[in-house]
Amino acid sequence: MSTRRAAVIRAFGPASVLELVEEALSPPAAGEVQLRQTAIGFNFIDIYQRSGIYPLPLPTGLGFEAAGVVEAIGEGVADISMGDRVAYMNAGVGAYADRRNVPAERLVKLPDDVSDEAAATLLFKGMTAQYLLRKTHAVQPGDLLLVHSAAGGVGQILTRWATALGATVIGTTGSPHKRAAALAAGCAEVIDLKDPEWPAAFLKATNGRKARVVYDAVGKDTLIQSLDCAAPFGLVVSYGAASGKAPAIDPELLNKKGCLFFTRPSVFPHNADPATFKANAADLFDAIGRGHVKVDIGQRFALNYIVDAHLAAEQRVAEGAILIVP
Ligand SMILES: NC(=O)c1ccc[n+]([C@@H]2O[C@H](COP(=O)([O-])OP(=O)(O)OC[C@H]3O[C@@H](n4cnc5c(N)ncnc54)[C@H](OP(=O)(O)O)[C@@H]3O)[C@@H](O)[C@H]2O)c1
């Protein structure tokens, strides 16, 4: 039995509910491997879970993604070897730790050109962008897309990848200082969400053309106005709630706004089947190799400073992704 360091919560609440514990770690069970984690991804969903917006049974660990090295292998694991560099993004909560047992079927081996830090930063967010632009809507050359929070983690990846596929992306940001990051990710124009008339600013930027797809993970503050930015028969994708829970949508409103399609998808069912997960990851690694997806680490925090990582995300100042180093 070895020991490990992990961050846990015993109650929902502000960032200060996160605490570090030293605890025993049992050997990997059948079908599992034990990882020495080298890089841990931070995602906005971690805040929803810490604060209780998406409640979990308590006490609980947090965090969905990490990269690391295989240090022990349980019975019945055939396709993983000691020392393999691997990553995961859908193995249940508990990635905030320096060591962890993970079901082998939830792991993907890392290609040589994808570093541990890149994988821990890109896997969860990149797999989100992957289903949003391959499955929720198969992005085509010439599509006009509106991407909210285009300077954020998923936002930058989605923007850069969709642009590489030939779409034109108009982005939004919550403050003008993020404009340069959104432009660098490929946005043709960036709209400031602090402008209460931001949908009019969007239409001005496009000479009145509306979006084939609106990707909205801001939720409460933007969703109703997002409906005004979608073209007739267009698609509005509500995939997050950074500003608070999105309002309920009356189906008749979709009719009035142009026979719109509306969906609320999630990365987990898209990657629940292990073979599909590996195929989606291969698509993401290919996009990384082609330069269509780039790692952009805005801030690094040691696991001991996990509270500060959460505060930084909530203060909404960071551009790019936050990485946690065990
Ligand atoms: N459904 C899925 O499958 C799925 C998977 C992954 C992520 N997501 C969602 O995608 C979004 C982005 O995730 P991420 O991890 O990459 O985070 P992130 O974009 O790095 O951070 C969240 C962004 O939300 C924006 N925001 C708007 N209102 C906010 C508020 N009141 N407080 C804090 N931020 C606010 C901020 O951008 P501005 O300041 O520029 O507005 C901020 O950059 C999140 O909503 C997340 O839940 C969904």
Automatic annotation (TrEMBL):
Residues 13-324 form the Enoyl reductase (ER) domain. The keyword Oxidoreductase applies. Keywords: NADP, Oxidoreductase. SUPFAM superfamilies: GroES-like, NAD(P)-binding Rossmann-fold domains. InterPro entries: ADH-like_C, ADH-like_N, ER, GroES-like_sf, NAD(P)-bd_dom_sf, QOR-like. The keyword DNA-binding does not apply. This is Quinone oxidoreductase. It comes from Tardiphaga alba. The lineage of its organism: Bacteria, Pseudomonadati, Pseudomonadota, Alphaproteobacteria, Hyphomicrobiales.
